[in-house]
Structure formats: structure tokens, C-alpha cells
Amino acid sequence: MLMAFPALVAFVVAWWITKRLCSPKSFLSILAHPNERTLHAMPTPQTGGLAVIGSVVIGLILVASLLAITQPSKAVLPKGVASGSLWIVLSMLLVFVVSFIDDCIGLPASLRLSVQVAAACIVIAGVGLTVSAIPIPGGPTIHLGLAAVPVSALLLVWMANLYNFMDGMDGFAGGMTFWGFGFLAYLGWEAQFPVMLIISTFVAMGALGFLMHNFPPARIFMGDAGSITVGFLAGTLMILGVRDRLFEIWVPIMIFSPFIVDATMTLVKRVLRGKRIWEAHREHYYQRVVLSGWSHRRTVLAEYGVMILCGGLAVSYHHSTDNVRLIILGAWGGMFVLLAMLVSMLERRRTRTSPILEQTGKEGKKKVEAVPTEDSSRIPVKA
Fold first, then answer.
1. pLDDT (tens digit per residue) in 285-298
2. SS percent in the chain: helix, strand, coil, step 5
3. pLDDT tens readout for residues 141-185
4. Would you put residue 324 in left (φ > 0), alpha (ψ -120 to 50) or beta?
């Protein structure tokens, strides 16, 4: 009950700040201009991440103040966790500040990556967060040994960047944040693990407030400051839960798998085809669905369904025996194979039935594929 009021405040603060940032009169109305990396046709504010992260910080301050007033004899956080929580928040703010500067003036990719690696090292060294083993249900446990540190750092940096890659459709990253952190908050509440519960709840509520203005057609984007920071925080809480035996690594992977699977498989396919992975493209599965004729709203609602299903599978996995867990993992993997087949089917159907505008001249024949008209100007496409 003590969490209810701060959570509501986080939602209202995020909603209000996002609304203010949507206005072109806002001094923080930094616009994402159409370029070769995007499909949106009109300049759109890209500072929504400020509302999300700002609401999280305000919520944390508020809940700490309430606990100090109502329960002065009780530590705000369990012994041994408070200092770790501080390092987590500081590393999150480091990533946020650099990403926000990048949204404003642009920074070299090497500098941004270096900061992300530094933040990952802060979390690993300052908090001691590493994934030391990967259990196989019904089979052996793979112990990482010396590889635990680099694997954990890679996980944190990859989560930050894949979130940024997937922030390319109205309501998509905001929805994944709400549902993903919502499931983490539930697991934290169930296990009476206050750090997971508190941070996840505020992130989820902040994302919901932002989503009120980001749902198709979006009036504002999350920007790198939002997507990269939220992705980094998701990776941090994943490793925290695994280290403190709140859940196995497969649980958060399944929760965030709508982003993890899409981004990872797209990257792997581009590498296998000899393409430059840092170049802009439109090969993510969610982009292919929109380009196949689905509207943004229809696509993002379908993605919400996948997110809820993945979260439900993760919770079921968490409460199951090893034999049942193996079945759940198989069903989870099979679901994504089926979804990939459905996307390919949509593309083939689009090729057969969509109108193709042909212009014939002396230079030959030029084909231009029609794109969905509903809010089609609102997809920022990232590498």
C-alpha cells in the first residue's frame, strides 16, 4: 500500500512531463528530423525518455521519504543492498545523461559505447552483478567461470543497444517497458524483494505515463536517452534477480524476448549475409510487418499480445518443475519460429496483392511499393 501513492505520482509526473515535451514551445523540444535512417515525414520531439527516467527518480525519492517518515527505525532498503542500489541508479543516470546529450547535439558512437561499457563495469565491480551460470532444465548447469564478467558486460551493453534498435515504432518500446518491468515488479513483490519491486514499478508506471502520448499516432518519441537507459536498466535488473536467486536467467530473457529475439536474429542474419551491421536498415520483424501492410496500431497491439504471452510463459516457467520448464522453453522457441513464418507469409501476400506503381521511361522500369498510410510517417528506423 505504501508503494501505491508513489507509483501513481510516477505515472502522473511522466504523463505531465511528456505532455509538456510534446509542445513545440518547450525549451526541451528537441526534434527528430527525417533523414536516411527514418521513415517519419515530420519533425517529432524525441525527449520522451526524460519523462520516463525523471518519473523514476522522483518516485524513488518519494518512496524513500515516505519510508523514512512512517518507519524511521527501519532501513529503507535491506542491509547490503542499499549501496548496490545507489550504484545501479548512478550508472543508470550516467547512461541517461550521455544519451540525452547525444539526442541534443550528437556524439560519436565510440564515445557512447565507451560510456555504456563503463556503466556496465560500475554495475559489475561496484555491485558485484554477474551471471555465473546458465541452468539447462533437465540437464547440466553451464558454469561460466572467468567468462562471467565479459558475458555480463556484453549482456548489459547488448540490452541497452537492442532496446534502442527496437525503439522504431509508435508505442512499441513504451509498451515493452510497461509490460516487461511490470512482470519484473510482480516477481519482486512475490519474492518480497524490495529493490526489484520498487525500481520496476516506477519504470513501468513512468512508461505508462509516456505511452499516453506515444501510442499510435505518436506525438513524441522516447529517444536514445530513454531507450538506451531503459534497456541498460532492464539488463541490470535481470542480472540482479539471477545473482540473488530471485529467478533463473531464462525468466527475464522470456519476459523481454519480443525485443531480444527480434534484435538478435536480425543482427545474426545480417552478419551471415555479409551486411554491415551498423548501417541503417528496415529488416527487423516488426518493421517488416508494417511494410507488409499492417498499420502501426494493429502491429503494436499484436506485439502487446506477444509481450503478455511471453511474460505469462516466464511466470509459468518460474513456478514449474524442470520437466515442465523444458516443455515451456520448447513452446516459447516454437512460438517465435511460428511468428517468423507468419511475417514471411505476410510479405509474400503483400508481394502478390499490393498495388505496385510502375513508371516506365527511357531509363527503364522503376517500382515503388506502396506503404501503409495510417500514421506511416511515425516509424523511426534504426540500425
1. 998 998 888 988 99
2. 65, 5, 25
3. 999 999 999 999 999 999 999 998 888 888 999 999 999 999 999
4. alpha
Element (H, E) at 37: none
Q: Is beta strand 31-32 parallel, antiparallel or unpaired with respect to 356-361?
A: unpaired
User: Residue 114, Cβ neighbours under 10 Å: how many?
Assistant: 12
DSSP annotation string for 235-301: HHHHHHHHHTTSS-THHHHHHTHHHHHHHHHHHHHHHHTT--TTS----SHHHHHHHTT--HHHHHH
C-alpha cell, 245: 536467486
Q: Determine the Cα–Cα distance for residues 251 and 312; give it in Å rounded to an integer.
A: 10
CA–CA separation, 100 and 52 (whole Å) = 12
Cell of 380: 523511426
Judging by beta carbons within 10 Å of its beta carbon (0-12, 13-18, 19+), is residue 352 exposed, middle or buried?
A: exposed
* Model pLDDT, residue 160: 95
- C-alpha 34/C-alpha 30 separation (Å) is 13
Q: Is 223 left (phi over 0), alpha (psi -120 to 50) or beta?
A: left
Q: What's the rounded mean pLDDT across residues 61-75?
A: 77
If we measure between CA atoms, which residue out of 190, 195, 178, 246 comes closest to residue 60? 195
- Give Dmax over CA atoms of the chain in angstroms: 84
Can you read off the three cell numbers belonging to residue 360? 516506365
CB 285 within 8 A of CB 296: no
Q: Cα dihedral sign for 273, 275, 277, 283?
A: negative
